[in-house]
Amino acid sequence: MRDPARILVVDDVADNVEILRMRLSSLGYEVTTAFDGEQALAAVRDQLPDLVLLDIMMPKIDGLEVVRRLKADKTLPFIPVIMVTAKAAPKEVIAGLDAGGDDYLTKPVDHGALVARVRAMLRIKSLHDEVEVLNRGLEKRVQEQVAELERVGQLRRFLAPQLAQAIVSAGNEDVLKNHRREIVALFCDLRGFTSFTETAEPEDIMTLLDEFHGAVGPLIRKYEGTLDRFLGDGLMVFFNDPLPCPDAPERAAKLALEMRAAVQALMPKWSRRGHRLGFGIGMAQGYATLGRIGFEDRVDYTAIGAVVNLASRLCSEAKDGEVLLSGRLAAAVETFAELQELGEREMRGMARPVAVANLVALKATVITS
User: Fold this and answer.
1) Which stretches does DSSP call E strand in 107-241?
2) What domains are defined for the chain?
3) pTM, full prediction
């Protein structure tokens, strides 16, 4: 509410208007005037007063209709209206309040009653304005939080929750723009899944995939890997992007071993159902181009490059229970991991043979969680 408060006095009798104007001006209020209902409506919309003193009996549009229109106008802020009537009869007062008036005064207007009612209505106006400010602030905050939740929800499709939250909290998504970075890429899938789907019922396939994803998904989150995509019975995960981590090879190795253990724990149950499946993993370290791909309604974050292709080829080569590593990645984890050197192997799509190692376990001195 402005200071001093602006009060609109409306009466078709000029002397009445002047008396109220002088009394209110002497109290320090800014006073404007109108002499009929049409002028009153125009003045309220133009001036947005903090309070209206409105005579009931006026030509053209009476005070009751004026207050009805004002209260029905959703474009106007809350403006208290004191109905001024020459009739003190309860019926007249009730009509004014029922039309939307907030208080009333009777003519001739008593100065003490005028001061008390004006101050009371302006206090209510001030409190209402404060609430409106708080509500607008709350509404804005809620909108910001909803937008933040939507952004977090979008980012969580391919990021660990803590990373998604960090990006949103930072206020920009520059880290998701196309860029080049060294990563560790991990592919995994179920051995024998294609044969399984040829004879299994669709419900059995979906149940098995739910169990598989439910076992390995939380582990990806645990080690803060970036889930690139689901590939039916397989997954692609990479480390050191979009936010860098100095121990990407170690995280990838721990994730691979825990994923293998989690799936192996499911296999007895699958076997009892007649499902004969295995599990293999391939991992490689190298540079890739990373960024968002897609269109407005669907965006993914992915890695493209030879390191991704190599990890995929290693996964295809892995036998049940094997975690095959490229030579570069094997060198990065040999200080804390037990490896089985497998020599060089020809890989489809690779110009030269690739050094390959099998990740057996972590060394006893390494803490696995």
Assistant:
1) 179-191, 226-231, 234-239
2) 6-135 (3.40.50.2300), 173-362 (3.30.70.1230)
3) 0.60
